Amino acid sequence: MYTTFIQHLERSLFQRFNLQSRSIPTGLEYKVSDRGRNPATIRSWCYQCQELRKIRYTSIDAGVSAQILNSVIYPSHHYDLPLLGIDFLSFGQVKNLIVMDFQPLFQDEAYLAKYIYPLKALQNKYPELAQDLEMKFYDANQYFSKYLLFAKTDAETVKTRVLAAFKDYLNLYWQMLDSAKPLTDPEDIQRIVKAQKDYDQYSAERDPASGLFSSYFGHEWSERFLYEFLFEDAVPLAAGSVKK
């Protein structure tokens, strides 16, 4: 269902950047599960370039049961841009959840005015994809903007309006990156290093997809996937801790 999205993302990336493959830990790039009603295949890609230190995207294909696309783009530590986060989940033909956002590293007014407020025009362009749904696993005021697209929708809307919004969000992100000035002060750069690590830690501890991964591919593999690939700068929770 999301093949067209992946193809557009790859065309956009390879046309704009001098990409190099970024290694994925052994055994995590591809896996097939025979659990559940339909076999599930998970496949991941990861790249890097001078401007973007980590570009990761993952597809899960479980036939009619589930189609999932997840991606996060991390800018180089020399840029203070938000992360670009994408989560598209389709279960059957009736349950489709889409999340797309510029995920802010900071919440001060100057930062939001520079990187988040420009999203308002795009959110206004796709009002049916901004449904103000409740976040069950995350604090909406941390690492999310108030102009995110977050909606439950139908399969036809995914193929049309969601695809159009996806292209628009990517284009705006590239424009911001083009106009961004690299940081040079070591303290500023270290501030970004810490902020991105904090994002990984926060996300790894709360990501509800870990349960989905476990159901298809087992707990041990899913924990490796979560901490060694998706959020590699996170430190696993201590034994006995409970995922919030």
UniProtKB/TrEMBL annotation:
One example of the protein's molecular function in GO is: 15,16-dihydrobiliverdin:ferredoxin oxidoreductase activity
Source taxonomy: Bacteria, Bacillati, Cyanobacteriota, Cyanophyceae, Nostocales
**Protein keywords:** Oxidoreductase
Lyase in keyword set: no
Indicate the enzyme's highest-level EC class. Answer: oxidoreductase
Q: What is any one GO biological process for this UniProt entry?
A: phytochromobilin biosynthetic process
Identify the InterPro entries for this entry.
Answer: Ferredoxin-dep_bilin_Rdtase (IPR009249)
Q: Name one Pfam family in it.
A: Fe_bilin_red
Q: Which residues cross the membrane?
A: none
Q: Which family does it belong to?
A: Belongs to the HY2 family.
| Identification of the protein by name | 15,16-dihydrobiliverdin:ferredoxin oxidoreductase
List the EC numbers from the record: 1.3.7.2
